[in-house]
Amino acid sequence: MKYYVLTLGCQMNISDSERLKTVFDHMGFVQTELEEEADILGVVACSVRQKAIDKVHSRIHLWNKWKKDRNIITFATGCLLPADKKKFLKSFDLVFETNDIAGLPEMISQYGIVTPAGLNHHHEQKEFWDIDPSYNSPYEAFIPIQNGCDKFCTYCAVPYTRGREVSRPSDEILNELDRLLDRGYKSITLLGQNVNSYGLDKTGNELSFAQLLEKVGEKGDQSEKPFWVYFTSPHPRDMTRDVLEVMSRYKCLAKQVHLPLQSGDNEILKKMNRKYSLEDYRKIILDIRELMPEATIFTDIIVGFTSESDEQFENSRRALAEFHYNMAFIAAYSPRPGAASALWDDDISQEIKKERLHILSDVFIKSAGEFNEKLVGRKIPVLITGRSRDGKKYSGLTEGKINIQFPGEGEDRIGQFHQVKVCESTGLSLTGELVL
Predict the structure, then answer these.
(1) To the nearest 10°, the Cα dihedral for 252, 423, 413, 391?
(2) Buried b (16+ CB within 10 A) or exposed e, 264-278
(3) Are 138 and 75 found together in one domain?
(4) Domain carrying residue 416
(5) Which of 11, 148, 181, 228 has the fewest CB atoms within 10 Å of its CB?
(6) Do residues 205 and 99 share a domain?
(7) What is the pLDDT of residues 194-207, one digit of tens each?
């Protein structure tokens, strides 16, 4: 029997789907990329964005049509708001929390599908984090270290979809890292909704986030093979200097920081319940620049939040220009059911939101281009991640996650580190030549 999984949303959902795949594989099912040939069709959904939920409704409408002609089972899991979950219960055969993925064999057995492999797995039920993932890539992987959110930003529904913050035991994290390094993985990302809040729910009984990074860094020093470790997404409120100091000391800890700003205006930040000021945020940026001068910095920005004035938007524009980001993920505000701001007026027009988004995009593209220009002429390590269809060009990522393309024929180098000389900056990306 074959299964198909549609994964929507953030990297946490991608990581969850890798564990979901393991459960199916252990039951003896075969994954397919073709919906029309699957016996089990499912989605790892995301209630955080309406577009993702709309896509789920579109798929289940189609899948339920197919049920008239053949026997299929449908399921939904992932980040689900109670309102979305209630709707899904009427249209999907199975709706369950990601933490219940290990119990999938028993759920499916209710439909008369029980394989010998499935029976064996039923007697070996594991906690969600104990499931060894079926990673999507042979050289890049995610390690979930924390789940949930205690911050309750007024625009965000995550605390209502993922629950409160829970830290994974550090020995499990380090063991998963060891397994990945033994398999030769090159790029590993530590994941959490507020990844640098790690350990705060277990004060006195667990490592802090800085201490966890130190353990990871020590493994890098002991390894004969190079690898890069990233983490996402941190919250500025919990970004302490000791985390940045550890990052600066260890070669394997990638010099790349994703630090969501969301707004450059203190009144809007307060309205968002972000619990830091622009001045607090600026100090973190200055610490990064001091300790890791060549680090790349990514951010998230929301434009058109409830009642955002022209002056408040201008404060965001100035902040974006001041902090010289390498990448900014800019989103026009839209209210989400369950979030506090859903009860407020969404009083900024779509036209104004779109205009503000374009203005901020121009600002960060300019600063990113200036950073990239400084790399021209340098030889830098690159993780090769892809190849053109004609086999004549490679694409890859620098340590700072800047895209680079360069000519390359002959042997397959995907998943390998290579030195590349940067020849040109093309705005947000680079072009270069392989150094042999």
Answers:
(1) 150
(2) bbbebbebbebebeb
(3) no
(4) 379-434
(5) 11
(6) no
(7) 999 999 887 667 89
CA dist 331 and 75 (Å) reads 30
**Cβ distance 326 to 283 under 8 Å?**
no
Contact criterion met (CB below 8 Å) for 303 and 360: yes
Domain CATH code at residue 397 = 2.40.50
340-397 pLDDT, tens digit each: 999 999 999 999 999 999 999 999 999 999 999 999 999 999 999 999 888 899 999 9
Q: How far is CA 358 from CA 3, 305, 321, 333, 349, in A?
A: 41, 15, 14, 14, 14
Dist. CA 263–CA 18, nearest whole Å: 33
Which of 78, 99, 128 corresponds to the end of one domain?
128
Q: What is the pTM of this model?
A: 0.89
d(CA 333, CA 414): 38
Q: What domain count does the chain have?
A: 3
Do both 205 and 84 map to the same domain? no
Q: Tell me which H or E stretch contains 322.
A: helix 310-323
